[in-house]
Amino acid sequence: MEITRAFCILLVSVLNAVKITSSVEDGLLYLDYYKETCPLAAEIVSRNVEIAVLKDPRMAASLLRLHFHDCFVMGCDASILLDNNGDIISEKQAGPNLNSLRGFEVIDKIKHLLEEACPLTVSCADILAMVARDSVTLRGGPSWEVWLGRKDSLKASFDGANQFIPTPNSSLETLIANFNQQGLDVEDLVALSEKYDKYQRYRTFRRILRSICPESGRDEAIAPLDFLTPAKFDNQYYINIHQGNGLLGSDNVLVNEDHEGEIKKLVWDFASDQELFFSSFAKSVVKMGNINVLTGIDGEIRKNCRFVNP
């Protein structure tokens, strides 16, 4: 996965504890939700994600981030996709998202095709959930069953996007608090942020980073989270942190400010066992995908993901 120097990207990993009320357990979301109403929905989504990722391998990470940044504000309700319109101030303009999030055109195309096949049936929020899974799988990561039945929000929260998405210079305490607000615990937390100037242990790695992110200019420079397998979804990120070669300042925060050792143990476990990481990551995404979902009579199925229905 890849990030901008000035931006915070969220990767999450979870073990077994679930502290939020699960929409799955409550029977609000279902597997095969569109089996009767739009049987080709999953195929349409996966085919077009594959096309987009083949054109631009970075798009996989970008589409995954859309799901994260959507869920962390008001819940998994596709509010992140809304443009400015009337009283709505788009979350796209919030600090953590502006000139950083991308992939909206891919979602637009998928939604257009789904509307042709099954008008006003598949929600934009469910599209984001399916796209996240397919993006990870296409880059060699795990797959998981996507629970569906979300509705789309009727509003956005510009202030919420600025408040609830962790900032690049967050301390470990702040990062944990951000995740706790979403019902997620430290085992769900791998938040990456800040620039490269805290890296002092590895001179070769630091020289590479200085060439990408000089002290002045190139604030929007792109760099992979790891330099060994930048196009793959794997556990190399954890290996890098364990070796002191994390890209971002909050990589060091995860281990240097973890005085109790819980996060250090997770980093070591995931660095040592990729299958454990894959399993935990899949569980985490499903858990995150349950945050404050709209179902039933709440929300709507948008015809266009960028605007609420007239």
Automatic annotation (TrEMBL):
Domain Plant heme peroxidase family profile: 28-309
Reactions catalysed according to its record: 2 a phenolic donor + H2O2 = 2 a phenolic radical donor + 2 H2O
Protein localization: Secreted
Residues that hold Ca(2+) 2 according to the record: 226, 229, 234
Keyword annotations: Calcium, Disulfide bond, Glycoprotein, Heme, Hydrogen peroxide, Iron, Metal-binding, Oxidoreductase, Peroxidase, Secreted, Signal
Signal sequence range: 1-23
Annotated GO CC locations: extracellular region
GO molecular function, one term: lactoperoxidase activity
Cystine bridges: 38-118, 71-76, 124-305
Name of a matching Pfam family: peroxidase
Residue positions binding substrate: 166
Keyword Disulfide bond: yes
Active-site residues, record numbering mapped to chain: 69 (proton acceptor)
Residues given in the record as Ca(2+) 1 binding sites: 70, 73, 75, 77, 79, 91
Cofactor binding comment, as recorded: Binds 2 calcium ions per subunit. Binds 1 heme b (iron(II)-protoporphyrin IX) group per subunit.
Gene Ontology BP annotations: hydrogen peroxide catabolic process; response to oxidative stress
InterPro entries xref list: Haem_peroxidase, Haem_peroxidase_sf, Peroxidase_pln, Peroxidases_AS, Secretory_peroxidase
Positions of the record's site feature: Transition state stabilizer: 65
E.C. designation(s): 1.11.1.7
Cofactor: Ca(2+); heme b
Function, in words: Removal of H(2)O(2), oxidation of toxic reductants, biosynthesis and degradation of lignin, suberization, auxin catabolism, response to environmental stresses such as wounding, pathogen attack and oxidative stress. These functions might be dependent on each isozyme/isoform in each plant tissue.
Family: Belongs to the peroxidase family. Classical plant (class III) peroxidase subfamily.
UniProt name for this protein: Peroxidase
Native organism: Hibiscus syriacus
